[in-house]
Amino acid sequence: MSTLSRRISYALLVVVLPMLTGCTRHSKSEKYYLVAINTAVPYWKSAADGFAAAGAEYGVTVDTRGPAGLNPQAEVDEFRAMVGRKPAGILVSVANSRLMTPEIDAAIAAGIPVITVDSDAPESKRLYFIGTNNLEAGRLGGRHVAARLNGKGNVVFFTNPGQPNLDERLKGYQDIFAGFPGIKTVEVFDIKADPGSALDQAMVYLLRTGTAKIDAFICLDSRSGFNVAQAFKRRSATDRLLIAMDIDSDTLALVGDGTIDATISQKPYTMAYLGLKALDDIHHYPVKPLGGDYGFDPYSPFPAFIDTGVALVDRTNVDPILRRQAAANK
Predict the structure, then answer these.
(1) How far separated are the first and last CA of the chain, in Å rounded?
(2) 171: CB partners within 8 A, 6+ apart
(3) Is residue 23's pLDDT more than 60?
(4) Domains 25-132+268-292 and 134-265+313-328 share a fold
């Protein structure tokens, strides 16, 4: 073989070999799990779609697991079971950080990469968090409520106390309301993992009149907004403000007809889509030690947080989102 021929052959190898190895990097034997807080709600179905889309692109095996209802201990049990399968990586949204932290730490100690999405456990050894800046989500909603109430009124919240992402949203609202002495938080109602209880309590709140009248109803989870809206419809309540969370089709329809004044949009699809790709990269290019203190390391290979963004959706911008959802569901 001539010198020229050898050079041409070498150049082809340099170009083609990385392409070939790139094509064979992934395998169906690589298994990744998304452990969700509540697989029954549309929010987590959207996340599962993003997880599946990234898995299909890479040609790896993915599965979304978790309780069909808010049950922190059941989520911990599911996470522990997935760790036992020794997967290539796990995404998890944390319903209760106290319960989940030791499980995450055990997974990391076993060499399984764990990234939190949607709801974090920052005290754990998870590699990093992908999701909403929930404090800013609350502040965004708080600024909108303050403007709509002209800085004065009684408000109530519907939430699951102790769930990290919801607690952060509540704090965000309270940060804003601290600057408006005329806005009073009357109650933070614990729905006890049952968004349907929000309907019954909203009916009670709607009976209050005079100085006890509730002016704004703020829902911090993804399903209470729909249920509170049903109470509004039953009472023909048109003089109160209802703020929801997330953009499932039911919520958006109620924004469109004006029952819900606004909702705060997140990107669960994006969280899980990016999360799978991040786990895959860590699996193929391992970082050692996996359980390093990367949160305080200025030379860390990982970010502390990837913010997937929030937006306020009301009647002025709901139609394009509805059209996008309809196109995605065809």
Answers:
(1) 57
(2) 135, 138
(3) no
(4) yes
Instruction: Judge whether 219 and 176 are in contact, CB under 8 Å.
Output: no
Distance CA 184, CA 193 (A): 25
Domain residue limits, the chain: 25-132+268-292, 134-265+313-328
The answer to whether 166 and 242 have CB atoms below 8 angstroms apart is no
Q: Which two tokens stand for residue 5?
A: 């021929």
**Is beta strand 311-313 parallel, antiparallel or unpaired with respect to 216-219?**
unpaired
Distance (Å, rounded) from C-alpha 233 to C-alpha 50? 34
Domain 25-132+268-292, what fold?
Answer: Rossmann fold (3.40.50)
**CB–CB of 309/61 below 8 Å?**
no
8 A C-beta contact, residue 130 and residue 117? yes
Residue where the block lists tokens 């800013």: 136
- In angstroms, the CA 103 to CA 80 distance is 7
**CA atoms of 253 and 38, how far apart (whole Å):** 22
3-state secondary structure (DSSP) of residue 129 = strand
Q: Is the peptide bond before 289 cis (omega within 30 degrees of 0)?
A: yes
| Domain covering 134-265+313-328 assigned CATH 3.40.50.2300 in the classification | yes
Condensed to tens digits (0 to 9), the pLDDT of residues 215-246 reads 999 999 999 999 999 999 999 999 999 999 99
Q: How far is CA 79 from CA 91, 104, 149, 160, 190, in A?
A: 10, 9, 43, 21, 25
- Identify the pLDDT of residue 293: 86
190 phi and psi angles, rounded to 5 deg: -85, 110
H-type helices in the chain, by residue range?
3-23, 42-58, 72-84, 97-109, 134-148, 164-177, 197-206, 224-235, 249-256, 268-284, 318-328
Q: How far apart are CA 31 and CA 36, in angstroms?
A: 16
Q: Are 246 and 264 in contact (CB under 8 A)?
A: yes
- The residues with which 62 forms a beta bridge, in sequence order, are 32
Give the predicted TM-score (pTM) of the model: 0.87
CA 40 distance to own-chain centroid: 14
